[in-house]
Amino acid sequence: MLPPAAPGKASPEILTGSQSVVRTLELLGVTDVFGLPGGAILPIYDAIMDSSVIRHILVRHEQGGGHAAEGYASAANKVGVAMATSGPGATNLVTAIMDAHMDSVPVVFITGQVFSTLMGTDAFQEADIVGITMPITKHSFLVKKAEDIPATIAAAYHIAGTGRPGPVLVDITKDAQQNAVPFVWPPKIDLPGYRPITKAHGKQILAAAQLLVESKKPVLYVGGGVIRSRASQELLELAEATGIPVVTTLMARGAFPDTHKQHLGMPGMHGTVPAVLALQESDLIVSLGARFDDRVTGNTSLFAPNAKIVHVDVDPAEISKIRIADVPIVGDAKDVIVDLTAAYQEAARAGAPDLVEWWTYLNGLREEFPLGYTPTSDGLLAPQHVIQRIGELTGPEGIYTAGVGQHQMWAAQFIKYERPNSWLNSGGAGTMGYSVPAAMGAKVAQPDRVVWAIDGDGCFQMTNQELATCTINDIPIKVAIINNSSLGMVRQWQTLFYDGRYSNTDLNTGHDTVRVPDFVKLAEAYGALGIRVTKEEEVDAAIKLALETNDRPVVIDFVVSADAMVWPMVPQGVSNSYVQYARDHSPAFGEE
Questions:
Q1: What does pTM read for this prediction?
Q2: Any catalytic annotation for residue 124?
């Protein structure tokens, strides 16, 4: 009598490559994908129809899909996914890929590619998207075999969301999508050389703690990495343990509560005077997930001349790239901050630093140079007032996305951010058109929160077609167009540095113009509620109506003064010591 057969594994399911893509995304926990189909990615779109897990949102332009995936990732603190076809579909994603790269946003971009047998022949809609995006992705994959799909997409997802987050591209040939092979899960992910360091070297932590104890004028310089690493609570504990002033960069707004007594505001070209001068006058800068961007440092050679630098970053390539670090610390901000807090408390037992004189100076700056604005003299709305009221009436539980330019800076300045992931903007790339699709993605990720796209009349015209996506997919975002009828920030520079020669900055959308387009009619054409506001007494009612309207998108055309400017300002190329509080008004300095 023969022994019973040994129990064997069930043979793996046979799936096409396109079915493998969808199954892999489902197993990774992906529930929402933004995209637009085309010939080279049709097999994947056919397979998506059979998924009961994945909600695919059909965008009106691939760039909008890319920014929507970014907004989704940034609002939810998880990996976003966007898809496009080959050639122009893929190249339309390039701006969003670059944007995600600059701001460390975890997104997997999946593109279709022509048949592998046609690659290199200039086939219809062929573009070497792996080659095109190599400098602006964390990693790029080209998949030519169906059996490689599960491991490749799983690896892309892992790379995008770990270490310093960022965009990863997966380009899949059409034959790889069509061929059928056994589906093996979990796949073996082999990433030689990819070992992000999260735990910092103990010796470096102790050195940083010692500098903190010895410092007389320390500052915590907080960047977007604190938000990406979910370290806001740990940051609060470090700040309160040390009593040190905190500044939050454009990418870190909300990482530390604006209302906290230790918060000095945003540093940089349009930062608050206390934040800018705290960095400039400091003797120790503890940089947490920030990268000494030129918009923060001004003229790098003149930045914070007396400061020692503790530089904490998960990406070793950022450390000492711009400013040499006295104490370099490679590690995840969340882990490092916990260790640094403990080390500081131990070191401070022998005597905590006396920061009374430092705080006296900084509080003097706060009193002398509060954030404010000059009322308009032309009878039109003050954009700062409009944005401030949006923040006050919506509250800190809202999410605010911005385009790029003056309205972006005012939104960063005049809305109070009390929690992380509430402020989404294009910081490094400065992408006009980011706001509306990013708000759409954020609303998909956080459907129970109010989501505002604070946009300029220039930015809005670059991606407003995604209002159609919002209307049809029941994504009721609110759009506030800060309509000064011009490319506002460019116009401000023309006013200040080009003798008021307004070359090609008038957009004819606002007051006393032909109003092309008419934003209210445009909103209505897209199925949104369109409102125009021209008087200050109408501002609150319009915002409240928008907050009450949740059955469709809302677009408010706020007709504001073209002469309003963003202040404070550090002119490009000079020391931050020359921060201008308002036009022709800089802080006075002693001999030092």
A1: 0.96
A2: yes
